[in-house]
Structure formats: C-alpha cells, structure tokens
User: Which sequence fits this backbone?
C-alpha cells in the first residue's frame, strides 16, 4: 500500500516539474525577439521540444531505456530547474531547453515502457502535476513558486531530487533492456497504428491546457468586460475553474461499458458539440456567459485527457507519436505568437488576430481523435491481469484522494486571498488629491530576462500612486500568459480595482489598476488599417464621492503614420466627449508639438501636465478640470526598458470657479509636504539617470503652485 502511495505522489511531483519546464521555455524564447522587435535566431531553442524524434532510431531507444541513462535523464530534468539561478538569460535559456528535452525523453520512455500499472500511474501523475501547478499558483498569488524566488526554487529542486531518486530506487525504472521490450509493453495495451492523428490530438490538448488553463484566473480575464457589469472576478470565481478541471478528471473514471446505450449519443453530442460550443462561447460571449462556457470547457478538457492519453500511449511507435505531438504543440505555440506579433514576423499579416482559427483547429484535432478512438477509461486501455486489478483499484483511490487534496488546498488558498483582498478594498482616508502613473511595463521580464513582478510591485507601492496604467507587450500571448501577472500585482499592491481589455477582444493590452472604485468603463478598438492593434479604455473613477473620467490609449508604431493620425482623432473625440474632469494617460509614438500631440491638446481640449518638457517620446499625461500639483519621471533601473511617469492632481471644490496652478517650482519645501513625491527616489535631477537605481531624472520632480 505505502509503495503504491509513494509512486502516485512521486510521479505527481515529477509531473509538476515537467509542466513547469514546458511553461517556462516559451516565454524565455519570446523574451529575446520582444527586446529587439525582430527574430533573433534564438527561436531555434524550440527544437528542445523535438528531442523524442531521436527515439525513432532503435539504438537511441534502447540507450534511453537503459536504467542508468534513464536515471541520468530524470536527474537532469529535475536539476535544470536550477536555471532560475543562472547568471544571465542566455544561460538560463540553454539550461531550460536541456530540461525540456530531458523531460520529454523521460516522458516518452516511461509512458511506453514498464508494466501496465507503472504506466497508468505515470500518466496520471502527469495530469495530477497540472492540478498541483494550479494549486501552487493560487498560493503564490498566481505565480509559479519555482520561478518566483531562489528559496522556493531550491525547496522544489530538493523535493524533486527526492522524488526522482525514489522512482529510480523503487524499481520504477528497472526493466529488461531487450530490444523488443517496447513491443511487449505496447502489446499489453489495446494498440493501434494511428500515431499521426493521436500525436496531433495529444499535442493540441497539451497546448489547450497551457493556453487557457495555465492559471485559474485566466478564464475570468477572457470573459471580462467593462464596469459596472464586468463578469466574474478571478477571486473567488477562479475556484469554479479548479473544480471544473477536477470534475472533468473524475468523469473520466466512469465505466463506458456500463452505459453502452449512451456511448454513441454521448461521444458524438457531448464531446463534439460541448467542446466546440464551450470554446466558441469563451471566445465570443462576454462576462458571465463566457465564464460559464469556460467552466464547461474546463470539464471537457480534463475529461478527455485520460482517454486521449490512453489512446496516445497505445500507438505502436512512441518516438513518432511524441514527436508529432510536440510538432503540433510548437506549431500552435508559434501560431499564437504570430497572431499577436504579426507586425514583426514573416507572414504575420496573414495571421493577424486569428486566434479563432487556432482554437477551432485544436478542437477539431481533439474531436476527430476522440470520436475515432475507443471510448474507454484509461485503465481499460491496458489489458489488466486479474492479479493486478486490486492494485489498479487502490491506485485509482489514491489518485482521487490526491486530486481532491490538491483541489481543497487550492480552494483554501483562494479563500484566504479573497479575505485578504476584501480588507484592502475601499480602505484609506478620503482625500481630494490623487496621483496617476503610466509605465510601459513590457511583459513581466526585466532587461536581463528575469521576472520583474516583485520589483514592479515594490516600485508601485513606493510611488504611493492611487491609479496606474500599464502597457504590457503581447499580453494575450500564450507564451507569457501575462494576465495572471496583473492578478499578482493587484493582490501584491494595495490596489482595489483591476480593469483590462478582455483577451477575446484585442491582443495588445492596456491594464489599469485603481485604489478607488471604477464606476463604469468601456473598451475601444482604435483604427489601425496598416499596423498593430491599438486599444483604449475610457472609464469613470469614484474619488471620495467625486467622479473623474480617465482615458487611456496605446497608439500604433511610429512607422504607421495613417494609423497614428486616425487614432489621435478618435482619442481626441473621446476626450472631448468626456466629463469636465478628465485625465488622459497615453502611449503616443509622436513627439511633443507633433500633429498627433496637437490633435489631442486642441481638439481634445486638454492640457499637458508639463508643456515645457520636450524630451519625451511615448508616455504623456494630460488633463482637464483638475488642478495639477506635481510631475515626476523615474528611471527604469533595468526593470523595464521605459521610465515611469506620474502626476499629482487635486479635485477642485467648485469646478466653475477654480484656478489651476501655473507656477513651477523644484524645491519641495515650497509646497505642502502631503503632495511631495516619495524621497526614496532621491531629489531633483537634470538629464538622464544612468545608474541602476530608480531615481528622479529629466529635470523632475516638479511641483506646481
């Protein structure tokens, strides 16, 4: 009993490590071209996913089946988690690629070798590892702990080595090395030769699980819409996604042979129609309807995992099957990036915003393979001997117990996060003064390729701002799954509201965080006939009983002159039709005094926070109907490639008779202390700050009186 329990637990933890590696490599590959806005050649590291192709060759298969080589591959897989502690991004990418390669070799060899019980536990361990990953992300504020801190990385690395050694010495990797061992193992199953179809379906299923269920909050962010009817909040409603995934796995334990009269109807109507309809609903519906569709898709996805995995390992050619799966996985991965970064990749214009085609192709592959294969529970795929049946029953019980243990721990974490988060909402002394900040945040990686979430959260809290706008590049890309990073920020900072453009609308995102309630908001798609998608958000925020409008926008690239011209016209109209009190925060790829700048100022009827600051390029703060108090620019210190800009404002008591501040001072002693910027960023500084610290620069901070 105890060895069986240890086997399930160890395989689940090793499955978690495999998922960690598969999640981590794509964003590291994506990091380098995003820095240069061009292909760099390092995309070639994606070939790490194709390592199983070597197992097509007989001598390589026999070598990988050697218990010593397999043990080495296991330890290499686990050891490469230490890539987090590598000195630079290039080395980290190389180590990660080696880890992915080793993991796939181990996965292929162990899924096709050994007795039926061993293979059954290994496959289920991989699926439970996914649930474990989601649970740990809940407790680490939507982050994966293995990639979030050196201490967590070291702990997981240590436990991973223990699990790997337990598998090596327990007999799990001991097998005869005869050349026909693979054939014997596969013949223990209900085998079939259709490795091509099964491989494509399994790779598509892996990608779907990564893309949409990389974190329980993502479904809510696919479904989000403008205030006041935003749809379900990620917390606590992310718990329904976790429950949906768990119930999908539980449904897979049903004995299909006991409900023969439903087999045809269930397989054709439920699996084909339900999977397709739920994915379409998530993509095209909004708010609660989209969230419900996403939860149904969660049940569907995990329900087909055991069936497709069982059919997958029944293929007679493991190397071909796994290589095909990874080819489909990588192809879909790159297609997803091509949809978003189409402006910077060859042929990208033909795939502009084509996520619906990708999702449709995935569901087609999964549906065709499922409908053409045996409708059997995973253990039924193997020809279980009578003396093994009690062990199979016990292993199923342990799997179910561990599954609900993970789910219970995850729900507890969501509950605690929700309780803590609720305490932050609406807290603070009512004030007429507020501050706003804009920052091109990139995509949660700093200029050296390391996660910058913790540093970003610290920076936001140190600024003391009450309202934030970010422009994170490639937000909807699966390689980054950046939506969850802002869930992390909203919980790490003391912000009370998160407003973002929904994933199902646009690819280039804007995110807005506010410590005051957002009353209403509307998403806008700016005209971009030639270039990349340009989004905007208009919203109203309740500042201590007084409403202030905000308009935020992300213009297209400098090269697309027509796009910028049309976008400036639309945004100026948004500003013109806003209330008498409005603040604009924009990423405008035009210089001060340019055509687009003038369009916003004159036709939008707003003022620049500092019209004397001519050394700006992308970030601008403008306003109307409020009193300016201060303006500051803070160097990025390598945390991003762009500086932080922020401004302080006061809501006038009488809108019709107030007078704006027109005198500029740089000595903070000349203004009240309560409007000072945080001295943690130093004092007034002319010119750029080239030191690797966050510091005021570019002739700021300035105060107005």
Assistant:
């Amino acid at each position: 009993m105890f060895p069986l329990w240890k086997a399930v637990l160890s395989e689940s933890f090793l499955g978690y490590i495999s998922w960690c590696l598969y999640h981590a490599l794509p964003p590291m590959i994506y990091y380098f071209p995003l820095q240069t806005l061009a292909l760099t050649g390092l995309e070639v590291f994606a070939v790490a996913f194709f390592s199983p192709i070597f197992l097509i060759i007989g001598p390589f298969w026999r070598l990988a089946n050697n218990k010593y080589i397999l043990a080495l591959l296991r330890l290499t897989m686990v050891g490469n988690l230490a890539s987090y502690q590598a000195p630079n991004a290039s080395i980290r990418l190389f180590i990660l690629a080696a880890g992915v390669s080793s993991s796939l070799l181990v996965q292929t060899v162990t899924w096709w070798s050994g007795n039926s019980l061993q293979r059954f536990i290994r496959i289920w361990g991989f699926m439970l590892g996914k649930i474990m990953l989601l649970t740990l992300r809940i407790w680490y504020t939507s982050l994966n702990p293995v990639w979030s801190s050196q201490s967590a990385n070291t702990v997981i690395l240590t436990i991973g080595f223990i699990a790997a050694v337990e598998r090596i010495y327990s007999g799990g990797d001991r097998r005869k090395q005869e050349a026909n061992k693979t054939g014997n193992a596969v013949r223990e199953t209900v085998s079939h030769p259709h490795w091509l179809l099964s491989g494509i379906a399994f790779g598509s299923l892996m990608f779907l699980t990564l893309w949409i269920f990389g974190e329980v909050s993502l479904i809510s962010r696919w479904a989000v819409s403008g205030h006041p009817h935003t749809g379900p909040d990620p917390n606590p409603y992310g718990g329904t996604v976790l429950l949906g995934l768990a119930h999908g796995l539980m449904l897979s334990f049903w004995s299909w042979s006991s409900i023969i009269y439903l087999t045809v109807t269930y397989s054709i109507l439920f699996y084909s129609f339900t999977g397709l309809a739920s994915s379409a609903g998530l993509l095209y519906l909004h708010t609660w309807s989209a969230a419900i569709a996403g939860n149904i898709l969660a049940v569907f996805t995990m329900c087909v995992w055991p069936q497709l995995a069982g059919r997958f390992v029944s293929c007679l050619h493991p190397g071909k099957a796994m290589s095909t799966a990874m080819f489909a996985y990588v192809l879909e991965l790159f297609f997803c990036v091509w949809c978003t970064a189409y402006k910077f990749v060859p042929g990208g214009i033909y795939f502009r915003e084509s996520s619906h085609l990708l999702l449709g192709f995935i569901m087609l592959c999964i549906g065709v393979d499922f409908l053409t294969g045996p409708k059997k529970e995973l253990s039924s795929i193997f020809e279980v001997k009578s003396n093994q049946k009690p062990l199979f029953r016990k292993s199923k019980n342990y799997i179910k117990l561990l599954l609900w243990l993970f789910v219970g721990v995850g729900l507890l974490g969501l509950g605690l996060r929700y309780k803590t988060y609720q305490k932050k909402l609406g807290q603070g002394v009512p004030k007429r003064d507020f501050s706003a900040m804009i920052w091109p945040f990139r995509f949660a990686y700093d200029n050296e390729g390391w996660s910058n979430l913790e540093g970003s959260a610290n920076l936001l809290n140190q600024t003391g701002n009450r309202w934030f706008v970010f422009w994170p590049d490639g937000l909807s890309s699966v390689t980054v799954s950046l939506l969850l990073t802002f869930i992390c920020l909203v919980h790490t900072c003391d912000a009370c509201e998160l407003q973002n453009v929904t994933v199902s609308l646009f690819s280039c995102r804007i995110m807005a965080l506010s410590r005051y309630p957002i009353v209403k908001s509307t998403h806008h798609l700016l005209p971009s006939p030639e270039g990349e998608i340009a989004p905007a958000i208009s919203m109203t925020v309740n500042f201590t009983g007084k409403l202030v409008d905000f308009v935020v926008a992300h213009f297209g690239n400098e090269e697309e002159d027509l796009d910028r011209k049309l976008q400036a016209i639309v945004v100026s109209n948004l500003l013109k039709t806003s209330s008498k009190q409005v603040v604009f925060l924009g990423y405008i790829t035009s210089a001060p005094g340019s055509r687009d700048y003038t369009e916003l100022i004159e036709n939008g009827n707003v003022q620049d926070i500092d019209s004397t600051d001519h050394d700006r390029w992308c970030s601008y703060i403008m306003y109307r109907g409020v009193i300016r108090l201060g303006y500051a620019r803070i160097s990025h210190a390598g945390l991003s490639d762009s500086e932080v800009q922020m401004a302080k404002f006061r809501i006038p008591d009488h809108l019709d008779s107030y007078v704006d501040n027109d005198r500029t001072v740089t000595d903070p002693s000349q203004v009240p202390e309560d409007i000072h910027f945080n001295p943690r960023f130093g004092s007034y500084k002319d010119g750029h700050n080239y030191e690797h610290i966050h510091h005021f620069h570019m002739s700021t901070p300035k105060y107005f009186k």
User: Anything to note?
Assistant: The two ends are 77 Å apart (CA to CA). The first helix runs from residue 2 to 36.
